[in-house]
Amino acid sequence: MLLPFYMEMPPYRMPRLHTVFIMVWDACKGFLKKAGTIITLTTVILWVLLNVPMRSDAQFEAFCASDSSAPPSRRPWTSRSPPPSRAMTGSHH
Predict the structure, then answer these.
(1) What is the per-residue pLDDT for 74?
(2) Which of 86, 77, 79 is nearest to 57 (CA)?
(3) Rounded to 10 degrees, what is the CA torsion of 4, 8, 11, 15?
(4) Cβ neighbours of residue 48 under 8 Å, at least 6 residues apart?
(5) pTM, to two decimals
(6) Mean of the per-residue pLDDT values of the chain
(7) Does residue 82 contact residue 76 with C-beta atoms inside 8 Å?
(8) Using CA atoms, how far apart are residues 38 and 32, in angstroms rounded to an integer?
(9) Is 65 helix (H, G, I), strand (E, B) or coil?
């Protein structure tokens, strides 16, 4: 004869607000630490890649002028428009 399965359950209690706050804060702190690390490292890597080696405007223009692989219609740095470094700053001549 099979007996029914009984499982004893502990009494349910409302969690204390302090305990809930501590658990949520620990989870948020862990997320912010992980996300902040990734965001900071990505930002530093991008900054380094964009700024090293630093070139003056004259060096940049000489580099762009020496690039003859793109047809003239595809070169935004031709005499029709200022070089990209000046176009992004918003200064107009």
Answers:
(1) 54
(2) 86
(3) -110
(4) none
(5) 0.45
(6) 80
(7) no
(8) 10
(9) helix
